[in-house]
Amino acid sequence: MAKWIEIAVTVDGEGAEAVADVLSRYVHQGVALERLFPGEVWNDEPLPPGPLIVKGYLPLESAETPEKQRQIEEALYYLGRLYPIPAPTFRIVEEEDWAEAWKRHYHPIRVGKRLVIKPAWAEVETTPQDIVIEMDPGMAFGTGTHPTTQMCLEACEWFVRPGMRMVDIGTGSGILAIAGAKLGAARVLALDIDEVAVRVAEENVRRNGVADRVTVLHGSLESVRTSARHFDFGTANLTAKIILELAPLGFQHAIYPAGKMVFSGIIREQAEEVIAALTASDLELLGQRERGDWVMLIMRRRFD
Q1: What would the pLDDT profile of 143-191 be if each residue is shown by its tens digit?
Q2: In what order do the strands lie in the sheet with 294-301?
Q3: What is the rounded distance in angstroms from the CA atom of residue 93 to the CA atom of residue 129?
């Protein structure tokens, strides 16, 4: 059983956004946000004033972990000079312990008009119109509780139509790919460069009965830009840093002309730079949505 170093910082809602941005630069598969006093959440309101616990994980046996841990401490120290941030706590956890912790803090949530995200171990009352997605995130990012994931799920409701082809770059737990399939997409390609995420996404795809429509592969943008495959709609819930690194490869190559793609994992202060990088190719900005300090960009591939 793998062991991980858990980094945890307890802050209010405003501070959580900034801490999550810092941790996401270094930790494995994104961050987790937990309420200090957990309870069911049945709306998609912005993060509450607090308290919240922001958590991230580093593999204990990786040679890079000591340096990443040092960088995290340093970054949070400088952040604390701008906004009151307590020192992070570190502890070693078994992967199994991490999963059990999620069972205590991860509760059903309702996103958008029809989507209900529930942990695989929970029961929940639904209506005939609801689309239920069962998730066991394992060590992969994507539970539906983070504002960036929620905005992308809402975008799936807006843009996915029956028969569409969809691509999800950086699929994490597979939550967006599964939502796309359940909303009617005929084919969904889910990509991630992390082998743990690929395994977790495959398990969640099977759990939700959409394995006939969702293909999970190890890869990223390069996997589709050099192939003949194109898609009507795409999602990239990554980080601003990763989006900026991938932008020169050309996200537009993944989608058909006039096709739409949404990008999230972006802090408001980073949005202008990300927009500039994406519009430098054949993508144009249709709009953006914000939740707290997080931004989602809605882009379209030009067709002129």
Answers
A1: 667 788 899 999 999 999 999 999 999 998 899 999 999 999 999 999 9
A2: 214-218, 187-192, 165-169, 231-237, 255-267, 294-301, 283-291
A3: 40
Three-state SS at 156 = helix
Q: Which domains does the chain carry?
A: 3-99 (3.30.70.120), 142-301 (3.40.50.150)
The pLDDT confidence band at residue 130, using thresholds 50, 70 and 90, is very high
Distance, in Å, from the CA atom of 22 to the CA atom of 259, rounded to the nearest integer, reads: 32
The dihedral through the CA atoms of 60, 66, 71, 73 has a sign that is positive
| Residue 12 exposed, middle or buried by CB count within 10 Å (0-12, 13-18, 19+) | middle
- Which one-letter amino acid corresponds to residue 252? Q
Cβ distance 174 to 214 under 8 Å?
Answer: yes
253 exposure class (CB count in 10 Å sphere: 0-12, 13-18, 19+): middle
Gyration radius of the chain's alpha carbons = 18
Least Cα distance to 251 among 270, 276, 287, 279 occurs for: 279
Amino acid occupying residue 248: P
| CB neighbours of residue 91 within 10 Å | 10
Q: Nearest 5°: phi and psi at 101?
A: -60, -40
> What is the CB neighbour count within 10 angstroms for residue 67?
11
Q: What distance in Å separates the CA atoms of residue 9 and residue 2, rounded to the nearest whole number?
A: 23
**Residue 231, helix vs strand vs coil:** strand
As a whole number of angstroms, the distance between CA 159 and CA 57 comes to 33
Cα–Cα dist 156/177, whole Å: 9
Nearest to 154, CA basis, from 204, 209, 118, 110 = 110
Q: CA–CA separation, 232 vs 219, rounded Å?
A: 19
Question: Using CA atoms, how far apart are residues 236 and 246, in angstroms rounded to an integer?
Answer: 11
- Whether omega before 51 lies within 30 degrees of 0, making that bond cis, reads yes
Instruction: Say yes or no to pLDDT of 33 above 80.
Output: no
pTM metric for this prediction: 0.74
